[in-house]
């Protein structure tokens, strides 16, 4: 059977696409992909075989209400990825632009994913997880529902995250603990050395020794008031689930 091209979209004849699905120009849909109603896919995405997009959420509260999955532009979605639509009438699971989802990645209902993120093989996000821009999550890691992962954070492979992960930091372990800043990603993104050094000072304030959250906040406020430190403080203030305070190595 030949490949079908429709409005500059490449669709394998063995793909199953339900009525009302929207697909942007330049996107390719490989063999045996399933795309359910309520799904919108942006431009220039590449969907590999056996991905399932927009399936019903794995949530007992879901009663068949109309919800959706919105995927942005320039995403790579590899084999057997499952992205579920939201619960709650009118709500959406959202994936931004230029993300790389490797084999067997799963995003649960109501997740919100930013831009330029990488999810290695078998990463699993429970429902209502928020992932900000430029995040990397290593293979076989799992994230508890309602967690938030800050921009430029990294979660090492085979980790379990059950609290919010701060921006610019690296976490590892089960449960995950802080190990350092994500200096490699920041360097690649063009952060100045002085900024990276100040973020490392912040890491030492947060994870260098046991301390209460009020003391951590007070000591962070004494650091140079650059945007990145302000972002850290605001992230901590707005955390609903609580931040990871434990350190993976040492005390």
What this model shows, in words?
The protein has 251 residues and is α/β, with parallel strands linked by helices. It has a domain at 4-128: UDP N-Acetylglucosamine Acyltransferase, domain 1 (3 Solenoid), CATH 2.160.10. The chain is built from 4 helices and 26 strands. The protein has helices spanning 183-188, 193-207, 213-220, 227-238; strands spanning 4-6, 9-11, 16-17, 22-23, 28-29, 34-35, 39-41, 46-47, 52-55, 68-71, 76-77, 82-84, 92-95, 100-101, 106-107, 112-113, 118-119, 124-125, 130-131, 136-137, 142-143, 148-149, 154-155, 160-161, 169-173, 176-181. An 11-stranded mixed β-sheet has the order 1-2-5-8-11-14-17-20-23-25-26. Strands 3-6-9-12-15-18-21-24 form an 8-stranded parallel β-sheet, with no helix packed on it. The termini are far apart.
Attribute tags:
251 residues, alpha/beta, UDP N-Acetylglucosamine Acyltransferase, domain 1, eleven-stranded mixed β-sheet, eight-stranded parallel β-sheet, 4 helices, 26 strands, 27% strand
The biggest sheet, with number of strands, parallel, antiparallel or mixed sense and barrel status, is: 11 strands, mixed
| N-C termini distance | 61 Å
Spatial extent as radius of gyration = 19 Å
- Helix % is 10-25%
| CATH architecture verdict of the domain at 4-128 | 3 Solenoid
Low-confidence stretches: none
> Please, how many helices?
4
- Arithmetic mean of pLDDT: 95
The global form is elongated
* CATH-defined superfamily of the domain at 4-128: Hexapeptide repeat proteins
Biggest β-sheet: strands ordered side by side in the sheet: 1-2-5-8-11-14-17-20-23-25-26
N-to-C SSE string, H for helix and E for strand:
EEEEEEEEEEEEEEEEEEEEEEEEEEHHHH
CATH class value of the domain at 4-128:
Mainly Beta
Main structural class = alpha/beta
Quaternary assembly: single chain
CATH topology-level fold name of the domain at 4-128: UDP N-Acetylglucosamine Acyltransferase, domain 1
Record field, number of beta strands: 26
Strand % is 25-35%
């Amino acid at each position: 059977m030949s490949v079908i091209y429709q409005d500059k979209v490449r669709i394998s004849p063995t793909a199953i696409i339900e009525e009302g699905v929207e697909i942007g120009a330049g996107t390719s849909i490989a063999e045996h992909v399933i795309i359910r109603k309520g799904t919108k896919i942006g431009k220039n995405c590449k969907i590999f075989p056996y991905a399932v997009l927009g399936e019903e959420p794995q949530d007992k509260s879901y009663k068949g209400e109309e919800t959706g999955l919105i995927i942005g532009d320039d995403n790579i979605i590899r084999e057997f990825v499952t992205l579920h639509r939201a619960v709650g009438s009118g709500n959406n699971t959202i994936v931004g632009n230029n993300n790389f989802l490797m084999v067997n990645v799963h995003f649960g209902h109501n997740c919100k994913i930013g831009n330029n993120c990488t999810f290695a093989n078998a990463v699993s996000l429970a429902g209502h997880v928020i992932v900000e821009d430029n995040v990397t999550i290593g293979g076989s890691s799992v994230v508890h529902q309602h967690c938030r992962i800050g921009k430029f954070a990294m979660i090492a492979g085979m980790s379990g995250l059950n609290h919010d992960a701060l921006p610019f930091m690296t976490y590892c372990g089960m449960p995950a603990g802080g190990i350092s800043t994500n200096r490699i990603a920041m360097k690649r993104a063009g952060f100045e050395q002085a900024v990276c050094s100040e973020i490392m000072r912040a890491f030492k304030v947060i994870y260098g020794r046991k301390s209460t959250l009020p003391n951590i906040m007070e000591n962070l406020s004494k650091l140079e008031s650059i945007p990145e430190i302000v972002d850290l403080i605001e992230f901590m203030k707005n955390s609903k689930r609580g931040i990871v305070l434990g350190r993976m190595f040492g005390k």
